[in-house]
């Protein structure tokens, strides 16, 4: 199989999974699509250097998470990201792509209020059910630091719910 067809197969296999990983971090459909496209462009450009000993999903997720964090940084330059993220989260109920209820929307608001790294760690651990060892490879940080970030994120989310109860 030639490189192009092989990569097209990879795009078909991983697009939906990566989209939802990205979407939980950047929150909007439009940003998620942009980040997904950038992810696959970077993967295509680096495809020849991909170490086949690694898992394709881990490599692509690492690119996607880095691109998501870059997108959040770009958004911070355009507006106050915390206020923007919270308003985006509040608009989820009106979003055609959102199929959750009010509790899910409140969870998304709570997640949106987290700092970028805590939001990313929480998303990968809670929604994607990734092992800390895999997250460590993706974010290039220690498992201990990830566990601490996740624990702090859970406490903040719990506190967010208590304040609104």
UniProtKB/TrEMBL annotation:
Q: Does the keyword ATP-binding apply?
A: no
Q: Which residues form the RNA polymerase sigma factor 70 region 4 type domain?
A: 106-157
Gene3D superfamilies assigned to the protein according to its UniProt record, in alphabetical order: 1.10.1740.10, Winged helix-like DNA-binding domain superfamily/Winged helix DNA-binding domain (1.10.10.10)
Cross-referenced InterPro entries, in alphabetical order?
RNA_pol_sigma-70-like (IPR039425), RNA_pol_sigma-70_dom (IPR014284), RNA_pol_sigma70_r2 (IPR007627), RNA_pol_sigma70_r4_t2 (IPR013249), RNA_pol_sigma_r2 (IPR013325), RNA_pol_sigma_r3/r4-like (IPR013324), WH-like_DNA-bd_sf (IPR036388)
Q: Which residues form the signal peptide?
A: none
Under the heading SUPFAM superfamilies, the entry gives: Sigma2 domain of RNA polymerase sigma factors, Sigma3 and sigma4 domains of RNA polymerase sigma factors
Q: Does the keyword Transcription regulation apply?
A: yes
Write out the GO biological process terms: DNA-templated transcription initiation
Q: What top-level branch of life does the organism fall under?
A: Bacteria
What UniProt keywords are attached to this protein's entry? Sigma factor, Transcription, Transcription regulation
MF terms from GO for this chain are: DNA binding; sigma factor activity
Task: Specify one Pfam family.
Answer: Sigma70_r2
Looking at the record, the residues that make up the RNA polymerase sigma-70 region domain are 10-76
Note the PANTHER family from the entry. Answer: RNA POLYMERASE ECF-TYPE SIGMA FACTO, RNA POLYMERASE SIGMA FACTOR
**Similarity-based family:** Belongs to the sigma-70 factor family. ECF subfamily.
- The name under which this protein is listed is RNA polymerase sigma-70 factor, ECF subfamily
- Originating organism: Xylanibacter ruminicola
Question: Highest lineage ranks of the organism?
Answer: Bacteria, Pseudomonadati, Bacteroidota, Bacteroidia, Bacteroidales
